[in-house]
Amino acid sequence: MAFFLETLIGGLMAGMLYALVALGFVLIFKASGVFNFAQGAMVLFAALAMARFAEWIPQWTGMDNMVVANIAAFLIAGVCMFAVAWFIERLVLRHLVNQEGATLLMATLGITYFLEGLGQTFFGSDIYKIDVGMPKDPVFLLESMFEGGVLVNKEDVIAAGIAAALVLLLSIFFQKTKTGRALRAVADDHQAAQSIGIPLNRIWVIVWCVAGVVALVAGMIWGSKLGVQFSLTTVALRALPVVILGGLTSVPGAIIGGLIIGVGEKLSEVYLGPFVGGGIEIWFAYVLALVFLLFRPQGLFGEKIIDRV
């Protein structure tokens, strides 16, 4: 039972991190109605910016306090993501208002390659380290209930807590604020939103800025766990089944989908892997997403689109 709980908790922790990346997809889709393939590149660019500025700031200032250096690096990286969002809206999205979804999709593919090249040019292509002081030592819980206790990684718990707090804030933002309601209106119909005075360009800048902050937090956490390298863009691919499962328009759906995928991957690898030779964790999420596409393509919490003629 203790081993099952360890696996279950590990899956929940991983699921919260998947949900954090999936949030970037949901945010952009809710505001523009397009699937943002540039989210992985945004995570990479944000992580590169934070890692490199955390390295450069002590060299420039002679500062020895790494906590202050990391905070300053996070803020500067946030400004960088705001600048990226502004340039994307100014140079790309502004000229594609009311275009077909396929056109916007291709634009995000172009943004992906641009950000990857820009990150390599400014920050280099080596493997960098992000150290924000999160403890990496495991801890044993519930020792009084189970012999030996349940082994839990402190870093995973803290990372999941950060992800959960950010998800909660975004849910409140979308449901309770005037800007959040405007974002949803823009996603439903660009032309109708413009006709009632909602400034489409400003809304897109806001949502890309929010998605940039989400990418920065995700990049910080994943960079702390895995190191900052260009393979970090593949984290976004692991989040695609989460979006399909939860629904493209649902913030809560990203959370539930992430938890289901995270737990499913861990449990299937541990309990089914020995019977099929292992490797289930790699493809489990995609098979589950395929099943949902066949039987419930809008996802668990997505809105079912009905065309009336």
Note the topology.
Blueprint: H1 2-32, H2 39-61, H3 66-91, H4 101-123, E1 138-141, E2 150-153, H5 154-176, H6 178-188, H7 190-195, H8 200-226, H9 234-246, H10 251-271, H11 273-276, H12 280-295
Antiparallel strand pairs: 1-2
Helix pairs in contact: 1-5, 1-6, 1-8, 1-9, 1-10, 2-3, 2-4, 2-8, 2-9, 3-8, 5-6, 5-8, 6-8, 9-10, 9-12, 10-12
Question: Helicity level, as a percent range?
Answer: over 70%
Determine the strand fraction and express it as a percent band. under 5%
The main β sheet shows up as: 2 strands, antiparallel
Please state the structural category: mainly alpha
State the total count of DSSP E strands.
Answer: 2
Quote the average pLDDT.
80
Rg calculated over all Cα atoms: 20 Å
Structure summary:
The chain is mainly alpha-helical and 309 residues long.
Description:
By secondary structure, this protein is mostly helical. It has one domain (2-227). The chain contains twelve helices and two strands. The chain has helices at 2-32, 39-61, 66-91, 101-123, 154-176, 178-188, 190-195, 200-226, 234-246, 251-271, 273-276, 280-295; strands at 138-141, 150-153. A two-stranded antiparallel sheet has the order 1-2. A hairpin with an 8-residue loop joins strand 1 and strand 2 (150-153). Helix 1 packs antiparallel against helix 8, helix 5 (154-176) runs antiparallel to helix 8 (200-226) and helix 9 (234-246) packs across helix 10. It is globular and about 65 Å long. The mean pLDDT is 80.
Features:
309 residues; mainly alpha; two-stranded antiparallel ribbon; 2 strands; 72% helix
